[in-house]
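Milestone 3.1: sequence recovery, worked example.
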């Protein structure tokens, strides 16, 4: 079949790579983490360039890790390594010396490349020059930056309405680039600014804003060292936020106890061999979790309510011994109604719904009753459910009843999975901007910003699929692979007249494209960014609301790369022309000009250019951290939620998608998931052995997974059955391979976040 007729695959090939199975581990890191870090870094970047990069990673004056958003210590940073294995892998991925340009793409057709796995695509190297795919084209070809920007400008100006264009942001985008991007998009005339936060912590933002008046977590890193109890829900820190384990170990050394709530007994929850200590090398003293609660998928809300039920009962039996009545009275509203709601619950039914027995629930309640300084941490295991907002509100209820917020050692901690996802939102990357922010832009830049809310991720996919939007521009990321309902999303992207990806490396979103497509290669976080002979720095905001500078210092692999801020300015100039109310040129002379304008439009950034140069940066204001709740009542609000257990039909199972240890979001660094004892294979489905027996399935049987939501049959073919310690009727698979099963219509209430953690599926032996 000629290349012209081949439709590039939107999915990974259904081929196996040679599964090896071993026992899951009960501790993370240790010497193997050092080995794997250096293997990746030296393998991709080489020894000298690799050591240069690692020596600056997360150091003051260095660059911020492009992976997760775990904070760096305010004070002393480790002289050995202020990074984890996955931070090293992220840097290796970016600092690779491999590069691909027009010559490579002349040899490799889009369809040919699409037949490769995400892992193989990612190993091709950095994209070295701007690339264009003409209508009907089969191979990307070189294009000049000028022509690329002209094409974007012409296309955007040709649209009947700015609302026919979508501008996506991935969480790697710096504050400076994010501010310019939203400014460009709003001066162009739309709020179509979906971002990866829509798919990850949007539910946290909605719940925390409703309950506490701010959509961000309240704790600092220092709070971990004062906490008496740390509750970790729906999070796998060992793989997704590894330096958190150092903080947990330090907290435990100071007497804290840990409750972990997760369907899977993740190694990083159970134990940690700190690779920076002799004890860690000798496998000594590694235990973390005191109480592990392996609940059913989506069992968090009934579990929390069952715990609260016993806490309220104990308080009634011994008034003043469990609740912080002073805090409740002075700082909250809605307690009595909520208390009555919980006390009328059938606690046995709650126990059945979450799959945790009463004795363990009682033990958790006792640990909480005995603590005053409690931190609750969570991630996607909570946010990607239909009732995610209710569940996160219930966590806040638990903290409020204990007065455990707005004081040292206590509070909320939604741990962000992408380095600047929180910063992007602070910079205005949001489809529902606040009137106050738009007023500030209007006043300072003298233009009338659009007030109509734009599309978030799910809405923009629908809009492209229905032809309401026809231009898609992505600032980083791998939209196709990160989003749900892969084949539906692929149809949506192919429906576009133009797709533009600002990227560092090749991924599947380059291969599933509009009638025309552009790839604009940008500098990475570790790359040196020179303007007018001066090395520039950008800034990022971590999960704790600390804004700090990030300065790349590696020589870029290609002279044809541009920084994100420069790409955005030139895109804006090519689209908006000379009449634009914004002087885009000034931002391309020095980034201080960007920060000076951010200071004028966004509260909390006073003296931005001065404070961002301070060692370690500065904290943004946070009302809930200071015990001030900016809700309509000026108080923290209790919330009444009703758990509606997910009823499954006989042959149905509940699937959650997860990351392997060799993966960051959709970037696949390797084929191993060594903490779970799985090596060299990603097409696996983790199943409960009793469920396998009931379904007549054996270890390593090859099966197809199906979902039928909304009358559409979705199939993920060829997965290998792996018995695993997972609750009954629950299964786990890796994304993006299983995203084809996640229905576009299955979203969280209020936050519209795709529900990737609770998808009904059926499993059939492959034929
Ligand atoms: S914990 Fe997160 S931010 Fe820190 S080095 Fe690891 S991946 Fe990077």
């Amino acid at each position: 079949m000629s290349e012209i007729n081949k439709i590039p695959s939107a999915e990974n090939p259904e081929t196996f790579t040679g599964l090896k199975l071993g026992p899951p581990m009960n501790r993370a890191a240790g010497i193997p983490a050092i080995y794997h870090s250096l293997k990746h870094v030296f393998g991709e970047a080489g020894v000298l360039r690799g050591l240069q990069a690692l020596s600056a990673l997360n150091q003051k004056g260095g660059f911020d890790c492009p992976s997760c958003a775990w904070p760096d210590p305010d004070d002393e940073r480790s002289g050995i390594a202020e990074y984890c294995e996955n931070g090293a892998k992220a840097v290796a991925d970016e600092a690779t010396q491999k590069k691909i340009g027009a010559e490579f793409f002349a040899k490799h057709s889009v369809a040919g490349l699409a037949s490769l796995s995400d892992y193989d695509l990612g190993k091709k190297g950095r994209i070295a020059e701007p690339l264009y795919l003409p209508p009907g084209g089969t191979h990307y070809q070189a294009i000049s930056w000028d022509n690329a920007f002209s094409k974007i400008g012409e296309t955007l100006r040709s649209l009947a309405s700015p609302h026919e264009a979508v501008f996506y942001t991935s969480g790697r985008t710096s504050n400076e680039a994010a501010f310019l991007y939203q400014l460009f998009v709003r001066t162009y005339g739309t709020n179509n600014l979906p971002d990866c936060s829509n798919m990850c912590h949007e539910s946290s933002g909605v719940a925390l804003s409703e309950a506490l008046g701010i959509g961000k977590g309240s704790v600092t890193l220092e709070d971990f060292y004062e906490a008496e109890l740390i509750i970790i829900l729906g999070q796998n820190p060992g793989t997704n936020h590894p330096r958190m384990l150092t903080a947990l170990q330090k907290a435990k050394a100071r007497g804290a106890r840990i409750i972990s709530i997760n369907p899977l007994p993740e190694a990083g929850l159970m134990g940690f061999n700190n690779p920076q200590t002799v004890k860690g090398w000798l496998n000594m003293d590694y235990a973390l979790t005191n109480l592990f609660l392996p609940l059913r998928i989506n069992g968090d809300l009934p579990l929390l309510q069952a715990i609260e039920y016993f806490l309220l009962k104990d308080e009634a039996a011994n008034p003043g011994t469990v609740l912080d009545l002073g805090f409740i009275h002075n700082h909250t509203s809605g307690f009595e109604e909520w208390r009555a709601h919980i006390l009328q619950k059938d606690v046995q039914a709650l126990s059945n719904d979450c799959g945790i027995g009463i004795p363990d629930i009682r033990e958790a309640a006792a640990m909480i009753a005995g603590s005053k300084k409690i931190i609750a941490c969570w991630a996607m295991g909570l946010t990607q459910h239909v009732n995610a907002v209710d569940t996160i509100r219930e966590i806040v209820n638990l903290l409020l009843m204990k007065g455990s917020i707005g004081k040292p050692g206590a509070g909320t901690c939604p741990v962000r999975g992408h380095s600047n996802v929180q910063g992007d939102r602070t910079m205005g990357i949001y489809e529902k901007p606040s009137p106050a922010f738009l007023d500030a832009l209007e006043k300072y830049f003298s233009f009338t910003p659009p007030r109509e809310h734009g599309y978030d991720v799910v809405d923009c996919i629908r809009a492209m699929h229905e032809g309401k939007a026809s231009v898609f521009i992505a600032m980083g990321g791998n939209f196709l692979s990160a989003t749900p309902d892969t084949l539906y999303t692929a149809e949506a992207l192919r429906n576009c007249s133009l797709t533009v990806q600002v990227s560092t490396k090749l991924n599947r979103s380059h291969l599933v494209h509009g009638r025309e497509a552009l790839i604009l290669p940008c500098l990475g976080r570790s790359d040196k960014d020179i303007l007018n002979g001066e090395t520039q720095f950008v800034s990022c905001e971590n999960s704790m609301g600390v804004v700090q500078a990030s300065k790349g210092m590696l020589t870029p692999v290609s002279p044809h790369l541009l920084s994100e801020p420069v790409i955005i300015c030139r895109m804006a100039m090519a689209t908006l022309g000379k009449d634009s109310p914004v002087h885009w040129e000034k931002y391309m002379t020095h980034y201080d000009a960007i920060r000076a304008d951010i200071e004028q439009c966004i509260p909390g950034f006073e003296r931005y250019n001065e404070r961002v140069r301070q060692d370690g940066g500065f904290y943004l204001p946070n009302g809930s951290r200071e015990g001030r709740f900016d809700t309509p009542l000026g108080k923290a609000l209790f919330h009444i939620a009703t758990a509606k257990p997910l009823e499954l039909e006989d042959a149905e199972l509940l699937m959650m998608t997860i990351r392997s240890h060799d993966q960051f979001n959709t970037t696949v660094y390797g084929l191993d998931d060594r903490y779970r004892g799985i090596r060299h294979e990603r097409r696996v489905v983790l199943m409960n052995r009793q469920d396998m027996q009931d379904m007549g399935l054996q270890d390593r049987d090859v099966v197809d997974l199906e979902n039928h939501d909304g009358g559409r049959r979705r199939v993920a073919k060829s997965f290998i059955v792996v018995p695993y310690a997972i609750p009954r009727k629950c299964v786990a698979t890796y994304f993006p391979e299983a995203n084809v099963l996640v229905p576009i219509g299955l979203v969280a209430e209020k936050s519209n976040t795709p529900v990737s953690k609770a998808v009904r599926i059926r499993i059939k032996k492959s034929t």
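The pocket of iron/sulfur cluster is lined by residues 58, 65, 67-68, 70, 83-84, 86-87, 241-243 (CB under 6 Å). Residues 98-199+421-613 form a domain with the Rossmann fold fold (CATH 3.40.50.740).
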